[in-house]
Amino acid sequence: MTNYIATDVLDAARDFFERRGTEGCEGTALIAGVPGKPATRLIIPDQIAVPAPYASVTISLEGELQLAAALSDSERYIARIHSHPGPAFHSETDDENPVLTHEGALSIVAPWFGLGLRRGLRVCAVYEHRGGTWTSRPAGPERDKVLAVV
Question: What's the alpha-carbon Rg for the chain, to the nearest Å?
């Protein structure tokens, strides 16, 4: 099943990540929507960021509560999107702290503190959660089967 994300959601994510990047910090957010329709909401929870050169970000307890209360009855989280200070990849920390673990969940990593999103998802790393593990979905026809922007 293809998950669709509205363009303005990625624009909002890029804006947030770039603002965090000016402080040398990563950022994280979740993308939500009604199943079968394009995802239209970016939820940015309260988070704790450690600036570069040891850049990292975690969702605070307050942020976890915000995420738990953010969805309407018809919505679900389809993806976590977060930035890295350099190239996009799923780090060991990302694997250990996935935020989303349901079958088919997506993890999107935006490179260069979100600046990579200026070129769209093709420069981002995208991973799909299947069978209890994260599988890379490189840009191209196979990724297009699980994620597209509208």
Answer: 14
Element (H, E) at 69: helix 61-70
In this predicted model, what pLDDT tens digit does every residue of 10-43 receive, in sequence order? 999 999 999 999 999 999 999 999 988 999 999 9
CA gap 116, 112 in Å, rounded: 6
Neighbouring-strand partners of residue 33 = 76
> What is the distance between the alpha carbons of residues 57 and 69, in angstroms, rounded to a whole number?
21
How many other C-beta atoms are found inside a 10 Å radius of the C-beta of residue 64?
14
Q: How far apart are CA 103 and CA 100, in angstroms?
A: 9
- Tell me the two tokens of residue 2: 């293809």
Q: Which amino acid, residue 123?
A: V
Neighbours of 5 (CB within 10 A): 24
Residues 111-127, mean pLDDT to the nearest whole number? 93
What kind and span of H or E run contains 12? helix 7-21
Question: Residue 2, SS3?
Answer: coil
8 A C-beta contact, residue 70 and residue 55: no
Q: Look up the pTM and report it.
A: 0.95
